[in-house]
Amino acid sequence: MKNDSGMASYPQLLHNAFLGIELGSTRIKSVLIDGDHRILATGNHDWENRLEDGIWTYSLEDVWIGLRSSFSSLAAQVLERYGIKLKTVGRICISAMMHGYLPFSNENGLLVPFRTWRNTNTADASMKLSESLGFNIPLRWSAAHYYQALMNGEDHCSKVSFITTLSGYVHWKLTGLQVIGVGDASGMFPAGLDGFDIGMLDEFNRLCSEFGSEAPITMPKVLFAGDDAGSLTVEGALLLDPSGNLCSGIPFCPPEGDAGTGMVATNSITERTGNVSAGTSVFAMIVLDRKLQGAYPEIDIVATPDGKPVAMVHCNNCTSDIDAWVKLLVDFMETAGVASAISNVYDLLYASALKGDPNCGGLLSYNYLSGEPITKFDEGRPMLARLPDSKFNFPNLSRSLLFSAIATLRIGMDILVTEEGVNTELLYGHGGYFKVSAAGQNLMAAALNLPIIVYESAGEGGAWGAALLAAYASQKSKDESLSEYLSNRVFSEMKSISAIPDANDVAGFNEYLKAYIRGLEIEREAVKSF
Hints:
Layout lengths: L11 H4 L2 E6 L3 E7 L5 E8 L3 E3 L2 E3 L2 H23 L8 E6 L5 E3 L18 H11 L8 H10 L10 E3 L1 H10 L3 E3 H4 L5 E2 L2 E2 L1 H12 L11 E3 L10 H7 L15 E2 H8 L8 E5 L3 E6 L12 E4 L5 E7 L4 H16 L6 H12 L10 E3 L16 E3 L8 H27 L6 E4 L7 H11 L3 E4 L5 H15 L6 H9 L5 E4 L3 H16 L1 H10 L1
Parallel strand pairs: 1-6, 6-13, 9-12, 14-20, 20-21
Antiparallel strand pairs: 1-2, 2-3, 4-5, 7-8, 10-11, 14-15, 15-17, 16-17, 18-19, 21-22
């Protein structure tokens, strides 16, 4: 049976459908696709991290409230569109923001509130581990969080038996299995085609034993794209859907991090391809065809969902300050008695940025809501700076906000390109920075001096990438690689928009960046005194 759109009708439709759920920094999104990778339904739940006792966190209660809300809205859309209750799908994939620290005791109790990737209070641990292992261990990684807790003498360390990430935790509770995809694993501890690096893990455990940590810490079992990763338990089905409609027994694929699902969603998992994800944070990923000659604190080495090495430039801050300015403008308009949807204000701000002076007219913006490791900030202070004779107008302000969101990324990319000679001909873009208009895409092209390609599916982000991983695990033929599946079955006819760097914009950004780097001293003084 087929419906009017040419899609198979239920129950065949949903038995052949694949569900991806991603817990992002500001939104928990669910995407359901059919066997041809077309979107059947979506669900969303907005949430925000909290700064509690100096730690950026989300409560586990909020995790489950958000997951249920996102799934419920997707199920409601399925009922509205197809007239049927969502009871089963072909396979599920859980994705979430990478890194962070979720330590559990033998009794499976969380020992301290979830410490997210946004925390930058692990500098001492990061430095010690990087020196001892000869491998950059970023501040965000789970290993750095645990080792910093040991260095701080935190009481909970003696009770830790298991550490995982957010995606690993959710998958565990839904399936009963403590497993993780290699991409997400590589944000906990060095990992690749052979899983966690055993030699480094032995050295890590030795270092931990110096603080009285007697038994090695258990981390999830590392799996790869296409692997089986258990199935939905009865308890897990009720956790996700308390209505009881969702059936147990649905197979899962390995849980992944948002960087991995972003690579899948942009078809950038083969050597010398890359993507840039720009939302609450911003990061560029280049799949390597050779090992880097050196180790750099600004460059993470992580992995694709099928285990290839990736150079990652990650910045903690991107669009959050833009969001704050948009809310301010909406408040102003409401005060003036002018009603306007927030989406219209985003459109105006982004469009105005294209009309600003190439160098933003002398305005400087710093979007540091939190610390920024690449520029060596443990804390941040959002700030706007200008000279008395700067051209202070709305287009220049808008352009400065958008440039500020990606300036630190360019600093990190310069290290990768200059020191290691790692180059790519273009980058695929996705995330909120690219969703509003062509402005984000064009200004990113200017900042990185590279063409930026955005697929028509980019707005669906990592949740769609997670659904693709679920589809791959179920539909791949024998010996069909993930890259072959994506290139031949998903992206071969996908429409895209290209932005080529404009010479004037490139020169303007370079001038802005020089002032931005000099002005970091202003930001440092703000952190000290305010």
